[in-house]
Specification:
The complex is a heterodimer of chains A (413) and B (249). In chain A, strand 1 and strand 2 form a beta hairpin. Chain A has seven helices and 23 strands. Chain A is an alpha/beta fold and 413 residues long. Chain A is 17% helix and 41% strand. Chain A has two domains: 347 residues, no CATH class; 63 residues, no CATH class. Chain A is globular and about 65 Å long. By secondary structure, chain B is α/β, with parallel strands linked by helices. Chain B has a single domain, classed as P-loop containing nucleotide triphosphate hydrolases (Rossmann fold). Helices cover 39% and strands 29% of the residues of chain B. Chain B contains nine helices and twelve strands. In chain B, strands 6-9-10-3-11-12 form a six-stranded mixed beta sheet, with helices on both faces. The radius of gyration of chain B is 18 Å and the shape is globular. Chain B starts with a strand and ends in a 5-residue tail after the last helix. The chains are: A alpha/beta (413), B alpha/beta (249).
Chain lengths: 413, 249
């Protein structure tokens, strides 16, 4: 089938190929390989790795999409699931001509060199759509897995929640044991229609040589709710992301929850922007981060109040475990209407010794006590996540700190 | 012998807070430590528990035959010494039930949790498990709930010596009865020893200490039986009682 309709995007992309992003390091993408051999099955080690990002291949309760490098190895819905569509984006674009209207609508192809490169090197991606008034609360799973050394993975995902529908998606993005150096440019567009609700949980587990530039836009219509949960636990070379939610319907809501454990020499630059465009819309962003090693974490948050009776709140809570780690909170509140109420609070500090000693007094060694406090500080309690996945995240949050900070400055050892 | 404190001197930021404390607690024995504010009672409790900001400049602490003077907090706890804090911190993100499991040596996030154990401990202090197991640790707890949360964690540790730092402060009469009753039961059933730091005799009526020590200015200045000292404290107050007595050293 002709893809001539994409030409205009490709033209724009060509022009933006060297356009730097406003935030984050400028990554030289030329060293990454756009091609990958076709894969038909999921190796066992990849299946185990996928579990780390909440993807259970054996879970057939809802739907699952699994992309290994550039190959879609799984894309299926449970037979009992009605009112939901899940398929590779290319299939969806072939099947539905109307879908072209959504392509690069929630964000711009010429935003920066990463969106441009993603368009010119598009490597699959998924399409998920909840039909009008259908409510599927069991999470659909989507996994974007890089398994080949040096790969550039650039999927383009589109999620549409039609009027009155509800959908819950868990996306896990990770690299396998064979891929040390890799780049991921994931494009994701959300369309939350009137009175629809999307709960989207993204769990990232990258490698120490992975460069990550996700680009995300969400358009939320009247009465729509967009909840985005983000979890990053393992070290990453360099990640920068700044999704934008456009609340262009009355009473639309957006909420971003981020849980970051930044270790080793990770460079993490994450934020989000919520634009309160229509009356009664509201947004909230809560960012919790624990930083250790020589990790550097930026939290950028921006809320723009453009209409009456709008409300927005930014919150950043940071804990620094090591004198060599840093957390930089950059909140921005922009009021463009007299009847908007915007607030932010940020608190960054060290681990509280009183709490540490308290936990140790129950017979718990210092490294474990730190893990408990880190877990408690970051504890997800993420809306929309099934308890089994919450428990898994808790377990990982607890495990990750163990052993990493032995010998750190804990008095009383 | 459960605990022997010999000539303990403790400083915090070069200020001497304990000036030669001597104390013996036998197995299964309950002793009370009383005294006016800032006499050194809490300093003694936290020093015994191993809090590193309390700098031991002289003396020794022998616990069950072992010198623990310079042992870390968790090592003392593992050896069987538990402390109930006067003002325990509230910690978000950690559930009381999980903390009880941890105190009992079980990690609730890596092992399948035996919820029966946690529930049993909560019931001992009259905290309904369905209401309290998932509450964040001490967050929004009343005075009495905090103290019961302390005891639940301590019972989970199965200690040999319990230090109770004003377990009765900020507690209403009903909570006091629960605290006193459950402590009495635990102490008797486990031949456990206890050091009860308090300002009031009410909790002592449940715990029936044999000995009462009165601290002043970083030292134990008067010791006697419960029957001897309590009526005197109540009639004279600490100041007059201490003035009329000669130090016990």
């Amino acid at each position: 089938m002709s893809e001539s309709w994409r030409e205009k995007f490709k033209m724009k992309a060509m022009e933006a190929l060297t356009k730097r992003a406003p935030f984050g390091n400028d990554i030289d993408l030329s060293g990454f390989i756009g091609q990958a051999i076709s894969r038909g099955t999921i190796p066992e080690d990849a299946a185990n790795k996928a579990l780390e990002v909440g993807i259970e291949l054996t879970d057939k309760k809802s739907g699952i999409y699994f992309q290994l490098d550039h190959s879609v190895v799984l894309s299926q819905l449970a037979s009992k699931i009605k009112g939901l569509e899940l398929m590779p984006i290319d299939d969806a674009l072939s099947r539905y001509e109307w879908l072209r209207q959504y392509y690069w609508k929630a964000l711009s192809v010429e935003q920066d060199k990463y969106t441009a490169t993603a368009e010119l090197n598009r490597t699959k991606g998924y399409f998920i759509r909840a039909l009008a008034n259908e409510k599927v609360t069991q999470p659909v799973q989507a996994c974007l897995f890089i398994d080949s050394e040096g790969l550039l993975q650039a999927p383009h995902n589109i999620i549409i929640a039609e009027e009155g529908s509800e959908i819950n998606i868990v996306t896990g993005c990770t690299v396998g044991n064979r891929a040390k150096r890799a780049a991921h440019l994931g494009i994701t567009e959300f369309y939350v229609k009137k009175n629809a609700k999307v709960i989207f949980t993204m769990i990232h587990s990258w490698g120490e040589e992975t460069y990550v530039r996700p680009r995300t836009g969400a358009i939320v219509e009247e009465g729509g709710v967009f909840i985005s949960n983000y979890v990053l636990i393992k070290p990453v070379r360099d990640i920068q992301s700044y999704p934008t939610a456009y609340l262009l319907g009355k009473g639309a809501k957006a909420k971003f929850n981020s849980i970051i454990y930044a270790s080793k020499d990770s460079l993490i630059d994450l934020g989000n922007r919520i634009i309160l465009m229509e009356e009664g819309s509201s947004g909230e962003s809560v960012f919790k981060v624990v930083a250790t090693g020589t990790a550097r974490v930026y939290n950028r948050g921006q809320i723009i109040g453009q209409s009456r009776d709008t409300k927005g709140h930014l919150e950043c809570r940071g804990m620094i475990l090591c004198p060599t780690a840093s957390v930089i909170a950059i909140p921005e509140l922009i009021a463009e209407h007299s009847d908007t109420e915007l607030s932010h609070e940020a608190a960054i500090g060290k681990l509280q010794e009183e709490q540490l000693h308290y936990i140790m007094s129950r017979g718990i060694p210092p490294d474990e006590a730190i893990s408990i406090l880190v877990k408690g500080f970051l504890d997800p309690g993420l809306p929309g996540l099934p308890e089994s996945l919450q428990a898994e995240i808790r377990k990982r949050l607890f495990m990750v700190e163990r052993g990493l900070v032995k010998g750190s400055e804990v008095k009383g050892e | 012998m459960m605990l022997e404190v010999q000539d303990l001197h403790v400083s915090v930021e070069r200020k001497e807070l304990l000036r030669g404390v001597n104390l013996v607690v036998d197995e299964g024995e309950v002793v009370a430590i009383m005294g006016h504010n800032a006499s050194g009672k809490t300093t003694l409790a936290l020093t015994l528990a191993g809090f590193p900001q309390y700098n031991i400049t002289r003396g020794r602490i022998i616990f069950r035959g072992e010198d623990i003077t310079f042992k870390a907090i968790h090592e003392r706890a593992k050896a069987g010494l538990a402390i109930a804090f006067q003002s325990p911190p509230a910690i978000r993100g950690i559930k009381l039930g999980d903390m009880i499991a941890l105190a009992g040596g079980v990690n609730p996030w890596t092992y399948k949790l035996d919820t029966g154990f946690v529930e049993g401990v909560l019931r001992k202090v009259n905290l309904e498990p369905s209401l309290y197991r998932d509450r964040e640790l001490n967050v929004g707890f009343s005075g009495g709930e905090r103290k019961r949360s302390e005891l639940a964690q301590i019972f989970a540790m199965k200690p040999k010596l319990i230090i109770l730092d004003e377990i009765d402060s900020g507690v209403d009469i009903d909570s006091l009865r629960i605290l006193g009753g459950s402590l009495r039961e635990y102490i008797e059933a486990n031949r456990c020893s206890a050091i009860v730091i308090t300002h009031h005799r009410h909790i002592l009526q449940y715990l029936k200490p044999k000995k009462v020590h009165i601290m002043s200015n970083g030292k134990i200045v008067l010791s006697g039986t419960y029957e001897e000292l309590i009526p005197k404290i109540e009639s004279l107050g600490y100041e007059a009682l201490i003035k009329g007595a000669s130090p016990n050293e």
